[in-house]
Amino acid sequence: MKANVVRTDLIFKLVERAAAVKVKSQMTKEKSSRPAPRRKLPRSFKDLTPAKHFNPRTFFQELILKGWFTPRHGQPRRPVFPKLKYGEVAITWIGHASFLIQFTDLNVLIDPNFANWLFLLKRLKRAGLKINDLPPIDLVLLTHAHFDHFHKPTLRKLPNPKIGVMPRGVGDLARNLGFSRIIELEWWESFSQGDWKVTFTPSKHWGARTLRDSHRGYGGFMLEHQGRKIYHAGDSAYFHGFKEIGRKLAPEIALLPIGAYHPATFRKVHMGPDQAVQAFKDLRAKFFVPMHYGTFKLSFEEMDEPPRWLSEIATRENLTEQIKILDEGVPKVF
């Protein structure tokens, strides 16, 4: 009788253990098959930017609505491109962050944007030249995927763009835009062909074009050709990386952004003229060409404030010969 009780208890324990293992296995299976939590959607417009700058009402009223009622000014110029000698470089500011850079044997566009509208955002100053007046383009450098820097309609219209160089994770956006070759680079990686070379450099910004593509890279470019070194910072806040760029690459001409800095939270992703001057010093460049101002209303300072403030700093710090404020559409030979 005692042996039967012991045997029965043993059977019950084995059954309980088997049931426990089965339940644990089912829980593990359910847990592993449970879908990953969805990415939290932004609760407001300000959540779309790293600095969480502004609320939708203020943004719409100050940057969108007022722009609709502001007359667009400026006129495209018919460019007179200079006849260059070997080692000379002509830089034409098109507007915003867009530049045409020319050597005797190479035409380069950086962040070309000829749009009069970016969705609801109105361009308040026309491009400095017409897209049809561009020379054949050998190389296009795209610093990041934001709509004001990577403008697909502009890229589709470019005259025979051959090579597009851009950050990693951006190449898919450039397909079917007319490029014969698309190159993606990580920070500090370089690409060269013939006698020219481009190096992709760090910046302090962000690269997402929409809510779900934060994988896209961002940065600036160093272009080297015929013994000249031109650096385009892309979009960037001030950061100590400018010292590293200066130390590693020693730019001669620095194209630096000076707009979209007010209120102060905007400085998490952009620079004002004061910080741009410090970046110029960190880079140890010879010339400073300002950009990223006066075209689109992207922040709350007055449209003409950035160059005015920069000129005041240049006078105060004896930098008037080094800071070159360009007129849109007018080539400047260096």
Describe the structure.
The protein is an alpha/beta fold. It has a single domain, classed as Ribonuclease Z/Hydroxyacylglutathione hydrolase-like (Metallo-beta-lactamase, Chain A). Helices cover 25% and strands 19% of the residues. The chain is built from six helices and 15 strands. The longest helix is centred in the N-terminal third of the chain and has 32 residues, at 2-33.
N- to C-terminal separation? 107 Å
Residue share in β-strands: 15-25%
Tell me which CATH architecture applies here.
Answer: 4-Layer Sandwich
Helical stretch count?
A: 6
- Detail the poorly predicted runs: 1-45
Structural class: alpha/beta
The main pleated sheet reads as: 7 strands, mixed
Summarize the helix and strand pattern as letters.
Answer: HHEEEEEEHEEEEEEHEHEHE
CATH superfamily: Ribonuclease Z/Hydroxyacylglutathione hydrolase-like
CATH topology: Metallo-beta-lactamase, Chain A
Short description:
The chain is α/β, with parallel strands linked by helices and 334 residues long. It is 25% helix and 19% strand.
Fold topology:
Elements: H1 2-33, H2 56-68, E1 90-95, E2 98-102, E3 107-110, E4 117-118, E5 121-122, E6 139-141, H3 152-157, E7 163-167, E8 181-185, E9 190-193, E10 196-201, E11 220-225, E12 228-232, H4 241-249, E13 253-257, H5 273-283, E14 287-291, H6 305-316, E15 332-333
Parallel strand pairs: 3-6, 6-7, 7-8, 12-13, 13-14
Antiparallel strand pairs: 1-2, 1-15, 2-3, 4-5, 9-10, 10-11, 11-12
